[in-house]
Amino acid sequence: MSGMHLSREFFELIKAIGESKSKQEEDRIIAREVVTLKKKLESGAAGSGGGPSLGMIPGSPMPGASGTAAGNALNTNKKKAREFLVRILYVEMLGHDGSFGYIKAVELAASQSIIHKRTGYLVCSCCLSPDHEFRFMLVNQMQRDLISSNLLESCGALLAVTSLITPDLVTTVSTQVMGLLEHSAETVRKKAIIALHRLHQLAPDAVTKEELIEKVRRLLCDRDPAVMGATLNVIEAMARVDVQPFKDLVPSLISILKQICERRLPSEYDYHRIPAPWMQMKIVRILSVIGKNDSNSSEGMYEIVGDCLRKSEEAGINASNAIAYECIRCITNIYPNPVLLDLAGASISRFLSSRSQNLRYLGVTGLASIVERHPKYAADHQLAVIECLEDQDETLLRKTLDLLYRMTNPVNVEFITDRLLHFLRGSTDPYLRTDLTQKICTIAERYAPNNAWYVRTITELFKIAGDLVDAAVSTNLMSLIAEGTGNEEDDEEADMVLRKQAVELYVNLLSNPPNRMPRVLVETLAWVLGEYGYLSSVMPLDAIIDGMCKLLESGSTARLGGGAASTRRLVLSAIMKMTAQLGSCPTPAAKVIDDYTKSSDPDAQRRCLEFQTILTQAPHLLGEVFPVDASLEDVDVDMNLSFLDGVVGEAISNGSRPYQKPEDDDDDEVNAIGSQAASAFKMTPYEKPSEKTYGQGSMQGMGSTNMGPTGSANVTLPPGSSGGMSPQAATSPAQQPSNPGEPQLVLRNVANVWGKQAPPVQPPAPSVPSTSSFGNTTATTAPAGYGGYGGYGASPAAAAAPVAPVKTAEQLEKERMAAALFGGMSGAPPPAPTQPAAMATPQMNPAPPVPQPTPVTPAVVSTPQVAPPAAPAAPEVDLLGFDMEPTTTATTSSIDMLAPTPLVEEPAPAPPPAPEPAVPAPAPADPCEFVPCCPNMLVAAAGLLDGFAESAPLPSFSTTEALDYCKFEFGGAPIAPLTINTPQFGERWGQCPHTHPINIPSSTSSSTLSKFMTLIGKAGMHKVEEIAATNEGIAACMAGGGSSVALVHGKIAPLPGGTSSRVDVTVKSTDPQLGLGLSMYLQNMIR
To answer: Buried (b) or exposed (e) across 223-250, using 16+ Cβ within 10 A?
Structure first.
């Protein structure tokens, strides 16, 4: 007990609160504690704390005035005063009033002891309301503490400023807070920038945005990482309000994030071997806000976000998974990049396949964020989503339902709506039920396949959660039934079919009513049967009238929508309409009408009396008073009441005074306004939806156009729903050929797999390393298909077709559900995958059919009868020409050795005159031996070997002599060194949009940093800096007189043995050709 620094009675209080079994028992304990604390404050009879508190034992006497001779212990013993305030804080937290002790909190805030001062500030921050008068008593104390030389007092005052200062008091402390931004202690600077941001939020006029932005920019480059991390919070909060002032911070944020990922921060910022994970997530979120809908800002962050995602996946712990999730959200928010989207898809796949429920929740959340704009990425996770729908974890199930809502389209709307209704039936959470109800209404109105389905779905929703449905939904449903297609030129027969189906639906519901019918369902049922009950073929009209009378006389308010008077009036009106349609009044209807003539509801009583009068005295007027199918007919209203002219004239002739309108009457103005106002109920049909634009529901307009009840396309959707699918929307952009005139790849039977690159049939020799590039990808030629990334461009002949495993009935059912769920989404299989040929891309030119494999006998290929292949994709060329065979082509290429200049076709030089004696055919030579007798050799014809003697051996790449000859040239001229320093290099690094990474697993020519920098210098580049501590080096060069700039960053990782090292080089440039050529050059040199 002594180690806990708690008095006996305080310990008993905490123990009693923890052991209380009910809220009532807890309230009794706190009430006794309040009495005890008041006694301590008033009488000063606080005990020494050596024994239990009698006030806490039921039946014990309250503490009296014994011990008053010791004086007021709260004034003499600060420790007891601090415990007194903590107990006051417990009282406040549990919902009771502790205002009697606030004055002690203000007094303790002025204590010289920092722990007592912080306790006083804490209680004041938690308990004092913004308009409490004690706040003014704290201003002077906070001002003194802010300028104190004791940094602990300054920190305590800064924490109090964020909680206690009100908008009218900002000017009293803003100057002191700004001064603390220059404090020598990093802890004070960190708290000062947060307090200054709070003051700006309270009073933007006192602390302007310009002042705060200037301070934030300076502290972002603070020498202490903790201050930088605190500044990131301020930047994120301000960027979400106005992102424009922070657009130019992208290079700085990228540089900070790169340093964190490379472990440049001290080790105390690591969390489970992850470098500063909270800072990483904060920077990624800021980049997400800045790069949203901004292609220029997004291009600079592609590389670092991809690197951050890869490194976080390698760790595989919770902190790294959190970083990966933030990277996924960033990738889906910024301007789209195909390579990054594939990386995000691979991470989502890893989350969904995990056994951890938390990671699966992250996977579903990430999939919901990416599927909204890129729905095709959900196609590979059909079964995973179906399994999440059947999971017992309610949190995961809710998030999966939100995913279904986001991926709804006209093809899968029936399946998704059915799943949402199924979950709504079993849900008891009122907030979840409200959310699901709104989502079902939205997708039903937007994506309904036909009107009949919409009527059935909304009626089922009325039965399940009618009390949560907006009244406008019921109005729209009745308007749809009354208007039908809404176009005069449409077939009236289809409208009558819809009305008949609606009548039969509600007749079946009336014959077997549920125990509870919501009000909206009863009112809709009464209106539909009252207007169109005569169309029923399953029940005669008199039976429908009898069922409505039983519903009204049942006495069950649950079946009558709560028994509201307005609901009963609608049911009475429906009975009267059907009686008029029948032409006679059945006995049940007559009894109900007679009973309601004595009703306490004056409106219902008046209706029944009027109906009785018409029925008994003028039955021939029933057809005029209750016309059939007249809900859309306009009612002629005589605004002048001309039918009363005769009565008025007779009264005037008898001596009555004519009516004179008062001078201050406003009826004319009201009538004028009312006559000009448009009707709130619009009867015109909805316009066709406009063409979809980016970011406005990427899944609208997809799917089937079969919208009519019988499959015809001439029936419009319910109000608010989207139209059919346009021909342009029927084809995904990723499936359209890049050049319709060229032969395209056939993608039949190719699996759509994230993150795996299907091996091509005949891989061309790569001119660029196969690593991913986040910059401009125009330098590499991708096959037709999606983005040149993944397995879309593979040929079906690359591997033999796998043998389909035997599937269980449960697996088949899940696949059927998945096909229904993911129908209509780009990249998803059709709902009935019985014809594999349907997966072929329809836009591509038909490729020649692949012949069936048949046994063949060896035969000699007759080369003259076979046409040579046209323009190989990327032939492997030996840049020195040692392995080239003699050729007789009429043209050749002019090549600058080691420089990746474009190949320019030019006429070959005239061959030298043949020698007089015939030269016999030479024997096969060594591939490494130079043969000078080939006049048409590619390299020799280009004049690249001029000056070399026939007998002189050529130096190899591994010798110094070769390095001296190898100077990189671009555009026919050697590059020039770009003399800059390290800070200038960092600024230019973020301005170069084109990135070309190089990864050499093992290199002997660059096994050390000095050797690597020597190669850089011999290439003609300026060595900016060598960082021996991390084995990194940077260099810069320029070409074209400075119009193009290239930057090189290399990192050497020695391998075991010490003779070789792993070399990772990144080349960034302003010209894609310069960066590509320089990366090829360095790759050849380092190898």
So the answer is: eebebbbbbbebbbebbeeebebbeebb
| Tokens read off for 730 | 């029927």
Residue type, 366: G
Half-sphere exposure at residue 673, Cβ-oriented, CA atoms within 13 angstroms: 4
Q: How far does CA 4 lie from the centroid of its chain?
A: 47
Which pLDDT band holds residue 682 (cuts at 50, 70, 90)?
low
Question: Residue 969's beta-bridge partner residues?
Answer: 974
Q: What pLDDT is attached to residue 814?
A: 65
Between CA 364 and CA 396 the distance in angstroms is 8
The token pair at 390 is 């059947």
Nearest to 1032 by CA among 991, 988, 1073, 985: 985
Range 998-1018 average pLDDT = 86
- Give 80-134 pLDDT, tens digit per residue: 888 888 999 999 999 999 888 888 888 888 888 888 888 898 999 888 887 888 8
Question: Is the model's pTM score more than 0.90?
Answer: no
Q: Is the dihedral of CA 883, 886, 891, 897 positive or negative?
A: positive
Measure the CA–CA gap between 845 and 742, rounded to whole angstroms.
Answer: 8
DSSP 373: T
Phi–psi pair at 695, nearest 5 degrees: 85, 5
Query: How would DSSP label each residue in 952-1017?
Result: SPPPPTTSHHHHHH---EETTEE-EE----HHHHHHHHHH--EEEEEEEEEESTTSSHHHHHHHHH
Roughly what angle, to the nearest 10 degrees, separates helices 587-596 and 565-582?
Answer: 140
- Token representation of residue 478: 């009745």
Confidence of residue 68 (pLDDT cuts 50, 70, 90): very low
What are 782-804's pLDDT values in tens digits?
333 333 333 333 333 344 444 55
Q: How confident is the model at residue 630 (pLDDT cuts 50, 70, 90)?
A: confident
Helix ranges (DSSP H) in 128-244:
134-146, 151-164, 170-179, 186-202, 209-220, 225-241
Question: In a 10 Å sphere around its CB, with 0-12 CB exposed, 13-18 middle and 19+ buried, how is residue 563 labelled?
Answer: middle
Identify whether the C-beta of residue 534 lies closer than 8 Å to the C-beta of residue 579.
no
Output the CA torsion sign for 1003, 1004, 1008, 1011: negative
Please write the tens of the pLDDT for every residue from 1029-1066: 888 999 999 988 788 899 999 999 888 777 888 898 99
Using alpha carbons only, what angle is made at residue 356 by residues 351 and 358, rounded to the nearest 5 degrees?
75
Nearest residue to 927 (alpha-carbon basis) of 896, 971, 883: 883
Sequence-distant (≥ 6) Cβ neighbours of residue 487 within 8 angstroms: 685, 716
In the structure encoding, which two tokens stand for residue 558, read together? Answer: 């649950």
Q: For the chain, give the number of residues.
A: 1087
Distance from the Cα of residue 434 to its chain's centroid: 22
Read off the pLDDT of each residue in 887-895 and give the average, rounded to a whole number.
38
735-773: pLDDT as tens digits: 444 444 444 434 344 344 333 444 444 444 444 443 333
Q: What is the DSSP letter of 262?
A: T
Q: How confident is the model at residue 657 (pLDDT cuts 50, 70, 90)?
A: confident
* 8 Å CB contact between 157 and 142: yes
Q: What phi and psi values does residue 175 have, to the nearest 5 degrees?
A: -65, -45
